[in-house]
Design a protein that fits this description.
This protein is an alpha/beta fold. The chain has helices at residues 2-10, 12-32, 36-55, 57-71, 81-94, 106-111, 113-119, 129-137, 153-163, 173-190, 216-222, 243-255, 290-294, 310-314, 318-321, 332-343, 345-348, 360-364, 371-382, 400-413, 416-429, 454-460, and strands at residues 74-78, 99-102, 123-126, 193-196, 200-202, 207-212, 226-232, 236-237, 262-266, 280-286. The protein is built from 22 helices and 10 strands. It binds iron/sulfur cluster.
């Protein structure tokens, strides 16, 4: 991971592209929440709705299944990614289709669905423009709401020239969009199955809510005969009247829009007499460790996330490194929190260290997730200290060297005479310390120790009381 961080820091073009784009998103969010009192009220409301839903998760999921089934939506449960992938494959095989049009969905990134289906001979067509671009380049989405935010127009034009050589070269954004639109129209026309994520699932009505700006989500959910919706179990909310504040928070936090261009409320498959809509709607509910997180009263807050991306747009680490440097599906502050819990501390625990703990993320989080507090908790669990939880890999990040150094540090600071001896020695010999002490110093100079310690300086300045070296 460190190498990817270093590479990202050297990529000036990518850094320029994301800085411009993320600053723009942050400014739009700022304008959308210019009324401080309204923001505080909405954030409290968002936090309360999501926290309440998570506190009743099993009961709400049962209600969602009941209501969806009554509406004609077929509900499937997947405990693991593999089970979810197989469920999708089985549905496609039942319909004997070898092509799937797909809307933007982070949960399918978590599943590794595209690679899984392609290995089974199924063509997967990403229909969100940003997703299409990263699919063509073979990359992961760079940002949770803007998958290709790291690319500029010239890069996209070059990509289209390489992948669609019959189409005239253009760097004009509208022409590029029209090209993608033409290509995708053909896919929508011939696809038998479409797959999307879900932003919220409403338990009382069995409604699947999907927000988007490009209309591709609506095409995926209405043009093909079969619609497969895949979501994590945490997306359920109790009531339909809780949706408006969450949508307001989501869209304003993500793009600064008062509302997205399309808000799709999917309640049922096509009914007799209706002219359009899929004949079958399937809902796949994925656990993949979420119920484990939900059982921890503190870490449960992670599951409140509504995937708006605001924490990324304001994070001093993400805004400099971008998403690919994290090397994980979920990136930025929420990724640093979610991935160690999802993959275990031994695998992704270092992400909890990739934070300055400045708190910008939790300040802008529309559902008030205390990201820095939870990162500190994961750091403690990584070395086996602090509150116990079910996070896999507890204690796996404890290393003998640092642990011994900290024990020595505590021993030296626990006694005034030992402390005096140490600080006196360091102020005399500090200049001899090697310049390269840790990986931290590869890009930073270590601080030089002062030639005289504070107590000595204070005594020289005439402050004698309690200034015993
Ligand atoms: S953690 Fe908060 S700010 Fe970040 S994506 Fe989730 S809801 Fe948005």
């Amino acid at each position: 991971m460190g190498i990817e961080f270093a590479q990202a820091l050297r990529d000036q073009r990518m850094r320029g592209n994301i800085r411009r784009a993320l600053d723009g998103l942050a400014a739009k969010r700022q304008a959308a929440f210019s009324d401080r009192d309204e923001w505080t009220r909405l954030q409290d409301q968002g936090r309360a709705i999501r926290a309440h839903a998570l506190s009743r998760l099993p009961e709400l999921l049962e209600a969602l299944e009941r209501q969806c089934t009554a509406n004609g939506i077929r509900v499937h449960w997947a405990e693991t990614c593999d089970q979810a992938n197989r469920l999708v494959l089985d549905i496609l095989r039942q319909h004997q289709t070898r092509m799937l049009v797909k809307g933007k969905s982070m949960v399918t990134e978590e599943l590794g669905l595209n690679a899984f289906l392609e290995a089974q001979g199924i063509e997967v067509v990403e229909t969100d423009l940003g997703e299409l671009i990263v699919q063509l380049t073979g990359e992961r989405p760079f940002h949770i709401i803007a998958p290709a935010i790291h690319k500029d127009r010239q890069q996209i034009a070059e990509l289209f020239r390489a992948r669609f050589p019959d189409i005239p070269y253009s760097e004009d954004a509208e022409t590029l969009t029209a090209t993608a639109r033409r290509i995708l129209r053909e896919k929508f026309r011939s696809a038998l199955a479409g797959l999307t994520g879900v932003n919220f699932a409403v338990a009382e009505t069995g409604t699947l809510v999907l927000v988007e700006n490009e209309g591709n989500g609506r095409m995926c959910t209405t043009a093909p005969e079969v619609h497969i919706a895949v979501t994590g179990i945490e997306k359920v909310i109790p009531r339909l009247d809780q949706l408006p504040p969450l949508l307001t928070l989501l869209t304003r936090s993500a793009t600064g829009q008062p509302i997205t261009t399309y808000v799709n409320l999917i309640g049922a498959p096509r009914r007799a007499g209706e002219l359009d809509g899929p004949k079958e709607v399937h809902l796949i509910l994925l656990d993949n460790g979420r119920s484990r997180l939900c059982a921890d009263p503190e870490l449960q807050a992670t599951l409140r996330c509504i995937r708006c991306g605001a924490c990324m747009n304001h994070c001093p680490v993400y805004t400099r490194l971008g998403g690919h440097a994290y090397g994980t599906v979920y990136t930025g502050p929420i990724g640093s929190l979610l991935e160690p819990q999802r993959q275990g501390l031994a695998v992704a625990g270092a992400l909890a260290d990739a934070s300055s703990l400045c708190g910008a993320c939790s300040e802008v989080c529309p559902v008030g997730i205390p990201i820095p507090d939870l990162l500190r908790r994961l750091r403690a669990e990584g070395i086996g200290a602090g509150a116990k939880s079910h996070v896999p890999g507890r204690g796996s990040r404890r290393k003998l060297g640092p642990a011994t150094l900290w024990r020595l540090w505590a021993w030296l600071h626990a006694d005034p005479s030992r402390y005096r001896l140490m600080s006196g020695l360091l102020s005399k010999t500090g200049g001899l310390l090697p310049r390269l002490v840790t990986p931290w110093n590869r890009s930073r100079l270590p601080p030089r120790l002062a030639p005289e310690n504070l107590h000595r300086l204070a005594r020289k300045a005439g402050f004698t009381e309690d200034c015993d070296d």
